Amino acid sequence: MTFVQEDIHTAYQDLFGAAVEKYNAKQQRSDRRIGDYYTKVLHDKTLEPQREFLAPGRQRQ
């Protein structure tokens, strides 16, 4: 298991930047375009910007 500590804005840009650009290119109306996906997720009532996941470890015997 690998843990990476990275700024969440940078992570969102790396993960979703290309998809947001592709989405924005298809939009005819400027009010439908997404400027900053992280800000959109942060203000959305149905999405959560970050979830923490804890995986319990088990020692082998």
Task: Describe the protein in words.
The chain has 2 helices and no strands. By secondary structure, it is mostly helical. The two termini are 20 Å apart. The mean pLDDT is 83.
Quick one: biggest sheet? none
CA-based gyration radius = 17 Å
Low-pLDDT stretches: none
The helix/strand series, from N terminus to C terminus, equals HH
Estimate what percentage of residues fall within beta strands.
under 5%
End-to-end separation in angstroms reads 20 Å
What spatial form do the alpha-carbon principal axes imply? elongated
Number of strands: 0
* Number of helices, where a helix is a run of at least 4 consecutive DSSP H or I residues: 2
> Helix share of residues?
40-55%
Mean pLDDT score: 83
Overall structural class, as computed from helix and strand content, comes to: mainly alpha
Describe how the helices and strands are arranged.
Layout: H1 8-26, H2 37-43
Sum up the structure in keywords.
single chain, 61 residues, mainly alpha, elongated, 43% helix
The gist of it:
It is built from two helices and no strands. With 61 residues, the chain is mostly helical.
